[in-house]
Amino acid sequence: MNWQPGISRQVLERRAQFLASIRQFFKERDILEVETPLLSHSTNPHPFVPSLIAEYQPHPDVPPTACYLQTSPEFAMKRLLAMGSGSIYQLCKAFRNDFCGKLHNPEFTMLEWYHVGYDHHQLMDEVDAFLKCMLHVPPAERVSYQALFQQHLNTDPLTVETAELKKIIEQQGIEVAIADSELDKDGWLNLAMSHLIEPKLGKTRPVFVYDYPASQAALAKISSHDARLAERFEVYYQGIELGNGFHELSNENEQRKRFKQQLKERERQELPIVPLDENFLKALEHGLPDCAGIAIGIDRLLMIALKKWNIRDVMGFDFDRS
Amino acid sequence: MASYNSSEFRNGLKVMIDGDPYTVIEHDHVRPGKGQAFHRMKIRNLKTGRVVERTYKSGESLEAADVMETDAQYLYNDGEHYHFMNPSNFEQYSVNADSIEDTKQWLKENDMCLVLLWNGNPLSVTPPNFVELRITETDPGLKGDTSGGGGKPATLETGAVVRVPLFIQVDEVIKVDTRTGEYVSRVKE
Predict the structure, then answer these.
(1) Pairing of strands A291-297, A107-116
(2) In what order do the strands lie in the sheet with B173-177?
């Protein structure tokens, strides 16, 4: 057993300064800090965003209720937005029921913010200012998902056939030991992105990748110019994915439809079925103001600032020490 | 045989892949934003030494390889095979000369080596980090040169060729670092 924390006093200080600078950034922009539940009765049904279950049982005679540690504070924050909060941000812990890795710990620190009246391009401007303030980096580059694949793999991600995409990936020397039946086209696109493109992204400046395929929309609006695209973006720096942003989907029917598809996909993958957040859906029905939002991994941001290449090295107690 | 799931993967773990034993050099859990998770591995084939990168789906498990290292003394070779013995249980291993092509030049009779065994059969041999070997052939050095600047090739009793300082003569014993193949010092007898 090892009682000691995994980081030095100096890293602790840098972490504290970092959190203080983040709060300063939002104070200057008059964006309100909020808190929402980490423990909730429902959760995100997305099959690739696994939730941790915590049992609520205040007395041995009370039957236990499954509650969920939040994978992000998104749904509750959108309920605040629907109430009329105006632009808000939150610094909190988020949880994923997932393996550890160089960039992954089941519990991590997330910054999530929503800017009312912004679309994803305007939010990218604000994220750019945020990164400049936190990491002292030059202005970010912007490239569409489609152009990025054309640049790096000389293929159009929107039209390429799955078999062709697989061939391109294998030609780049990636040995994939996964059955064809277990990877759909988005699976192969994600594999290409994470193995072949991501490591090369943002060597000298951050990069925004925007307009993802509609099949990877998650909680983003579908583009009004091109129904094949979702108004979603990701930001990368030093080969690390830092954040994921959306021009937020506000249509309740469309949101419910996506949740139902995700539950169906959960069933197909034999993943546990989770209760949908009806409060969140009700809030959308009431009306979510037009807004864009982003979640940024603060541990990863700190990794870059401190040039430490394992998430453990910026956390007092990573999962093994927890 | 036991198996490991991806949360148990560690560097140095020995696993079976496509019927061959491998050692894990590097591994990482990769999950693209909102996408399927992968387990990315860099592995070395312990039979061929070849290093490959492979991607599995996250949660995959791999069979453990029955691979262990043991101390063994090098006894002799008959040209085709090199023979070793574990001095604690007197078990003997014979290793095909081809499979130790890179290391056999450092093997001196009676030296203790590390033999890597898979299902009890030797896969590879690691010589001691430092070996002391006699010089069988080298050009005579320049008179009065003791600085060692420049150097010259010298052939050792095992057939290995290393660069030595100019003052080193035939029949002298030198110490060599087998990891780099470099001369370390002269050994006084």
Answers:
(1) antiparallel
(2) B161-164, B152-156, B130-138, B173-177, B182-187
Q: Could you count the other beta carbons within 10 Å of the beta carbon of residue A240?
A: 20
Structural domain of residue A123, as residue ranges? 9-140+205-321
Task: Report the CATH number at residue A219.
Answer: 3.30.930.10
ipTM: 0.85
Asked whether A116 and A87 are in contact (CB, 8 A), the reply is yes
Structural domain includes residue A173: no
Tokens of residue A48, six digits: 């690739």
Flag whether A115 is in a domain: yes
How many domains is chain A built from?
1
Quick check: B184 and B165 in contact, CB under 8 A? Answer: no
Residue A180 belongs to a domain: no
Query: Comparing C-alpha atoms, which of A209, A207, A211 is closest to residue A239?
Result: A207
Q: Please answer whether residues B9 and B27 qualify as being in contact, where contact means their C-beta atoms are separated by less than 8 angstroms.
A: yes
- Is residue A27 in a domain? yes
Task: Report the gap between the CA of B28 and the closest CA in chain A (Å).
Answer: 5
Whole-angstrom Cα distance, residue B157 to residue A194? 52
Which residues of A have a CB under 8 Å from any CB of B?
46, 48-49, 98-104, 173-178, 182-183, 186-187, 190-191, 193-195, 198, 216, 218, 234, 241, 244
pLDDT tens for chain B, 189 residues: list them: 689 988 888 899 999 999 999 999 999 999 987 888 999 999 999 988 899 999 999 888 999 999 999 999 999 999 899 999 999 999 999 998 888 888 999 999 999 999 999 998 898 899 999 999 999 999 986 655 555 567 899 999 999 999 999 889 999 999 999 999 999 999 987
Given CB atoms, is B53 within the 8 Å cutoff of chain A?
Answer: yes
